[in-house]
Amino acid sequence: MKSVMKMSLLAATVAFAVGCQQEDAKVEQTNQAAEKAEAAFANEDDKAAYAIGASLAQYLNANLEQQAEIGLELDKEVVLQGVQDVFKGESKLTDEQAQAALQSLDQRVTKLAQQQAKEKAEAAIADGEKYRSEFAQKEGVKETESGLLYKVDSMGDGEKPSAEDTVVVHYKGTLTDGTQFDSSYDRGEPATFPLNRVIPGWTEGVQLMPVGSKFTFVVPPELAYGDQDTASIPANSTLVFDVELLEIKDDAKKDSASEG
Fold first, then answer.
1. Catalytic option among 150, 217, 225, 233
2. Torsion of CA 120, 121, 124, 126, to 10 degrees
């Protein structure tokens, strides 16, 4: 056992030493690259000029990548050719022609983006209906008149909040495919908010929870964000929330009022 322990310690020491050497090598390479970059410019003006070109390239590349995401592929080499031709004073387009081409591009980008958003919204509606139908069949699931589905994961014994109360909760929000778009757990602290300033599904659902409870809510789009389309939540999405009600902030005020 002792020999095994010694070998383990030796292996750990070697691994640590190798790791340190690799890290030192990376730092050295970074420093060498920085020194090489400094030496590549004759003066500060050249460095600034290069920085302008690099910044322009980053901006153009980001735009081309965004357009590629909606199915519009523009040749980077042709973009570069346009920059070079203008610098040479040999542009193949007049100012009017270039403006017309950009306006046409903007219209195409808008049309493609709208079509993509429409397709995502239609898919979200179908996925949401299927998910809600399956969730509703699970044991213990209840549905309110508004269409909100919920399941009691654990029931607390505290007070229930009203719509005018401010509550403290831990929660996780996902799409029906399990993609997480928000989580107070990941942020490391609970969220505090007035119940009348959140989506209708939350306003209604959290009022069903005694303090100390954990519920799962399945919120149809009309009780969530409806046809609003965001980067993380497509339009018409059904949302799934795991919610833990920790505290009602207004409880102290109620107690004071009752004592008075």
1. 225
2. -110
The one catalytic residue among 127, 199, 227, 251? 199
Listing DSSP states for 129-151 in one string gives HHHHHHHHTSTTEEE-TTS-EEE
70, 127, 182, 242: which is the annotated catalytic residue?
182
Known catalytic membership, residue 225: yes
Identify whether 182 is a catalytic site residue: yes
Question: 20: part of which helix (H) or strand (E)?
Answer: helix 2-39
Does 229 qualify as catalytic in the annotation? Answer: no
Handedness of CA 203, 143, 182, 58 (dihedral sign): negative
Reduced to 3 states (helix: H, G, I; strand: E, B; else coil), residue 181 is strand
In the structure encoding, which two tokens stand for residue 13, read together? 């020491």
Q: What DSSP designation does 260 have?
A: -
Instruction: Look up 87 and say whether it is catalytic.
Output: no
Q: Please write the tens of the pLDDT for every residue from 53-90.
A: 899 889 988 888 888 888 888 898 999 899 999 999 99
